Amino acid sequence: MDGIVVIKCGGSMIDSLSKDFYEGIREMQNNGYKPIIVHGGGPAINQLLEDLSIESEFVNGLRKTTDDVMNVVEMVLSGTMTNKLVRQLQKHGITSIGITGSDGGLMYAKAKDIEKLGLVGEITHVNQDLLFNLISIGLVPVISPIAMSSDSEDYYNINADTAAAAVAVAVKAEKLLFVTDVPGVLKDSKIIEQATTIEIMSLIDDGTISGGMIPKVMAAIHSLEGGMNEVMIVSGQTHLLDGSKINGTTIQREMEAVK
Ligand SMILES: Nc1ncnc2c1ncn2[C@@H]1O[C@H](COP(=O)(O)OP(=O)(O)O)[C@@H](O)[C@H]1O
Ligand SMILES: CC(=O)N[C@@H](CCC(=O)OP(=O)(O)O)C(=O)O
């Protein structure tokens, strides 16, 4: 299916997405693009864990997920965050449907490293036909990054950047946009407008890229390796124009960069 744009909304800015952001999505639809949203919710998960005095830690940017932590992750992601986004989209005239990775067998996963990370999953399969069907009846899917094991026995917490990249590759999206609380990848407080995957790796090595930006750029790189052509990191305050020019950081494969 042509014209699919996967938009990952970071938990860092779901509460402060601008009117421009929603109008941009509506304009995309008017111009024939088909948006799919994958959302995070890290800060809200942190808050509820703290309120419930449940301890959690991050290992290489991923939340170590015990059974207790998983209950909270599912409550926040598939409850609060999905519904919040769906209501906002509806309010701005965009008909959307919230689904978790378990609904209709949308996403299957296996444990990444049960000893080190507990119930953190890595995606093994995305049911792209389910998404094509939802899009074809005019709905914008809003996906919570929780996925089941293939035998339906277990369920896993997936980093939302990783989930968005897997969805984008599976549906052969035209674009993948990581919407976050900064205007792009920054170096000395300035936006890097374009970077190759090798340049990104060296920005991680020299410490310019750190924290939550690491899973984001790594997911971007994996999606390029998986066949994506255009991957951008943009601000939640941006108007997501219908294609020509969006401000932010574009990450490219080496070959595109030398063309
Ligand atoms: N070089 C960088 N450029 C921009 N942001 C960076 C950089 N290195 C680290 N960051 C951090 O990454 C954060 C975005 O990641 P994260 O908080 O996980 O957002 P989200 O919830 O949108 O996924 C920024 O707010 C910033 O603090
Ligand atoms: C495994 C893992 O770390 N999962 C994430 C899922 C939410 C997420 O990724 O939210 P952001 O996009 O706001 O960071 C977590 O538990 O925080």
Automatic annotation (TrEMBL):
SUPFAM superfamilies recorded: Carbamate kinase-like
Keywords, comma-separated and alphabetical: Amino-acid biosynthesis, Arginine biosynthesis, ATP-binding, Cytoplasm, Kinase, Nucleotide-binding, Transferase
Catalytic activity: N-acetyl-L-glutamate + ATP = N-acetyl-L-glutamyl 5-phosphate + ADP
Assigned EC number: 2.7.2.8
UniProt keyword annotation of Nuclease present: no
UniProt keyword annotation of ATP-binding present: yes
Enzyme class: transferase
Example of a GO cellular component annotation carried by this entry: cytoplasm
Cited function: Catalyzes the ATP-dependent phosphorylation of N-acetyl-L-glutamate.
The protein's name in its UniProt record: Acetylglutamate kinase
Organism: Lederbergia citrea
Source species taxonomy: Bacteria, Bacillati, Bacillota, Bacilli, Bacillales
